[in-house]
Amino acid sequence: MIDETALSEKLTGNLFLIPPQEVECEFCGYSQKIPLPVKVTEVRNGLIKGAGGSVFFACANCGGPAEVAWDGAIVQVTEFSKE
Predict the structure, then answer these.
(1) Which of 51, 36, 40 is closest to 7 using CA atoms?
(2) Which tens digits make up the pLDDT trace of 16-62?
(3) Is the pLDDT of residue 78 over 90?
(4) 1-23: burial string, b at 16+ Cβ within 10 Å, e else
(5) What is the pLDDT of residue 3?
(6) Residue 18 near residue 6, CB atoms below 8 Å
(7) Which residues contact 41 (CB under 8 A, 6 or more apart)?
(8) What is the pLDDT of residue 33?
(9) 34, 20 contact by CB (below 8 A)
(10) Residue 64 pLDDT > 90, yes or no?
């Protein structure tokens, strides 16, 4: 069982990386996977909620400074393991 209170205290306000998402370069159209850094705003009911944001990345094809933006993020927590 996940102790959401303890998890919330540890995660809220911190950044986590959402696994790489396919993002298309706005200059050349090349598609590549980019991890998205999201700031945790809330942990409740098995969900980690994150704020919207944006990140610039260098396109692997043309080198252009492309940007990706998002309104928010929600990650469902099903299991944690200690390593």
Answers:
(1) 40
(2) 888 898 999 989 999 999 999 999 999 988 899 999 999 999 999 99
(3) no
(4) eeebeebeeebeeeeeeeeeeeb
(5) 78
(6) no
(7) 12, 49, 50, 51
(8) 95
(9) yes
(10) yes
Q: Residue 33: exposed, middle, or buried by beta-carbon count in 10 A (0-12, 13-18, 19+)?
A: exposed
Nearest alpha carbon to residue 14 among 47, 42, 56: 42
- Structure pTM? 0.72
Strands (DSSP E) contained in 1-83 are 15-24, 31-44, 47-58, 65-76
Instruction: Provide the β-strand partners of residue 1.
Output: none
CB 80 within 8 A of CB 46: no
